[in-house]
Amino acid sequence: MNFSQFNGQSWNFSPTFGDLDGDGDLDILVGEEFGTIFYAENIGGVNENFRFNPIQTNFMSIDPGQVSIPYLVDVNRDGLIDLLVGERNGNINYYQNLGTPTAPRFEADSKIAPNTELFGRIDAREPGFVIGSSAPVVLVQNGKSIILVGTENGLLESYQIDEKNYSNSFEATDLLTTSLSNLGAKTHPALADINNDGKLEMLVGNLRGGLNLFSTLFSSQDVVNSASPTPTALVRVYPNPSTGHVFVDAPQHHTNYLLKLIDPLGRLVFQKTFSAQSELTLPSYLTKGWYVLVLVSDTGISYEEKLLLSKP
Predict the structure, then answer these.
(1) Least buried of 42, 126, 205, 293, by fewest C-beta within 10 Å?
(2) Of residues 124, 26, 111, the one with CA closest to residue 67
(3) Cα-atom radius of gyration of the chain, to the nearest Å?
(4) Nearest Cα residue to 187 out of 28, 93, 10, 69
(5) CA-CA-CA-CA torsion for 108, 146, 14, 184, nearest 10 degrees?
């Protein structure tokens, strides 16, 4: 992507991926030393090799502080990808997406509601230190939304997200064991089902440039990038498991829906407009495994249900 063009002007690059423009492929945001965000649109297409438009600097004028570490995730479950940004000071900034599925819009000031510069009042600094280097990742575990946070001091922290108020202090969890310590300065976690066994592996990078790899007991379904639950009982998807043809029943007080299919890595792999009760034939390029079927109503309300695709 030729980030070398910014040599001498910027460094400490920190990427995150998400489908910001609703075209089914993963676009990229990149944090950097001075706190601004780079953006590049992926024009490669669904399930195609990455191909990016020229890099744009100073994305939407977002600049929370030094050493920005962005993470794209639909925090409030409205069908739009929001933005969390860790930073040198150790806090996490929340930027709510105020745009549309195809045209994101963020208020640049994290102090202006619905944004908050103190997401969960998380502080990755050790007592007596001024640098925290917070690096966020979100997953769902046992029905609870969890944020994992890399830190300056080589530890990983985890908190349960308060879905009613992002400005409240989040409760620390024991999801991560105390054995995950001394992983190197500026830990930065990432989750994915690398070996396709249905469980997530966790990679943790650090300042030295090394990677620590851990197996976890987290289901690969848990990495779906979302935070607050949506009403699933109102949506029926059957047969489930499916070989590629399903019926979807959704609340009929909405006329039209945007149907999205999200894979275990949080990627949008399929979408189409949809009526309340319809048959759906899934595209043949989908591989077997778990997906989340999301319906976004014409009034912006989201519903979801898990779908297991088992190829014949």
Answers:
(1) 126
(2) 124
(3) 19
(4) 69
(5) 140
| Model pTM score | 0.74
Q: Select from 214, 165, 171 the least CA-distant residue to 191.
A: 214
Give residue-wise pLDDT tens across range 289-310: 888 888 887 766 677 788 889 8
For the record, the structure tokens of 119 come out as 């997401």
pLDDT tens-digit map of 203-239:
999 998 989 999 888 876 655 443 333 444 467 889 9
Distance, CA of 261 to CA of 149 (rounded, Å): 27
The strands making up 135-141's β-sheet, listed across from edge to edge, are 135-141, 144-150, 156-160, 171-172
Q: Which residues contact residue 114 at a Cβ distance below 8 angstroms, ignoring those fewer than 6 apart?
A: 96
Asked if residue 225 lies in contact with residue 259, where contact means CB atoms within 8 angstroms, the answer is no
- Show the 3-state SS of the chain: CCHHHHCCCCCCCEEEEECCCCCCCCEEEEECCCCCEEEECECCCCCCCCCECCCECCHHHCCCCCCCEEEEEECCCCCCCEEEEECCCCCEEEECECCECCECCECCCCCCCCCECCHHHCCCCCCCCCCCCCEEEEEEECCEEEEEEECCCCCEEEEECCCCCCCCCCEECCCCCCCCCCCCCCCEEEEECCCCCCEEEEEEECCCCCEEEEEEEEEHHHHCCECCCCCCCCCEEECCCECCEEEEECCCCCCEEEEEEECCCCCEEEEEEEECEEEEECCCCCCCEEEEEEEEECCCCEEEEEEEECCC
Question: Which tokens belong to 11?
Answer: 């460094």
Mean pLDDT across the chain: 86
As a residue count, the chain comes to 312
C-alpha 43/C-alpha 142 separation (Å) is 36
